[in-house]
Design brief:
The chain is of the alpha/beta class and 279 residues long. The chain contains 7 helices and 12 strands. It folds into 2 domains: 69 residues, Winged helix-like DNA-binding domain superfamily/Winged helix DNA-binding domain (Arc Repressor Mutant, subunit A); 195 residues, Rossmann fold (3-Layer(aba) Sandwich). The strands form 4 sheets. The protein has a 6-stranded mixed β-sheet, sandwiched between helices. Strands 1-2 form a two-stranded antiparallel ribbon. A hairpin with a 6-residue loop joins strand 7 and strand 8. The protein is globular. The termini are far apart. Homodimer. This is Pur operon repressor. Keywords: DNA-binding, Transcription, Transcription regulation.
Amino acid sequence: MKKVKRSSRLVEMTQYLLQRPHVLIPLTTFAERYNSAKSSISEDLTIIKEVFQDEGLGELQTLAGAAGGVKYIPKSPKAASLDMMGRICAQLQEPERILPGGYLYMSDLLGQPSIVDEIGKMFASAFAGVELDCVMTVETKGIPIAYATAGYLNLPVVIVRRDNKVTEGSAVSINYVSGSTKRIQTMSLARRALKEESNVLIIDDFMKAGGTIAGMVDLLREFKATVKGVGVFVESDEDVTDHLVEEYVSLAVLTGVDTRNRHIIVRPGNYFEGVEKEQ
């Protein structure tokens, strides 16, 4: 490849890194790609690293040695994320979102790529230091969030089905008790969808008592997999004395729904505890 101007090289390198989160890229890759000395590439990476930090885009980790290189870790500053979540909570408090059973209508928000992308980056920031093999969710509304999270973590997505589909081959199915309705339901996962002994991050859009997530945890035991983290977009603490899931990261909390007066209270979740908003 012919030599390019430094300004062009910086733009291309930045784009290259943004498209490959959590991938270790040897310096020789850039040196050969741009026909430049490693010393020049190192200087460029220092500039990019400073910009990423200043703009809150994430971290650029450099590993020394023959097997070293550079790795981009997407992260959002919690204060900036809190501002974004405050705006999302304001939308979630719109009276027309109230559904029977104390649930919220969220499909329109989860259909907006910009919002889903921000949610995914928040979860990716929360679990950036965890060793993971995949992101798991149950159909259907949690799927967009799971894909957004997996995109920033550079991981595959595993989808648990409510029933077994012929097109997915043999599957493992379990019965679980819904924490909110107390009904016995079924979920299944194709045997080929998940390798045994995988490290899994569970992502869900809404958690009331946590029965669905507890069911996924039980399902993962059949694959000898380890749950390394649980992320919930909105949790409900209304009329829930005991969550079936003890450790989880929530981005928003539904604290009250007054169906008679059409009043909803939603606040930022436990991920933001102790964080002050940016001015």
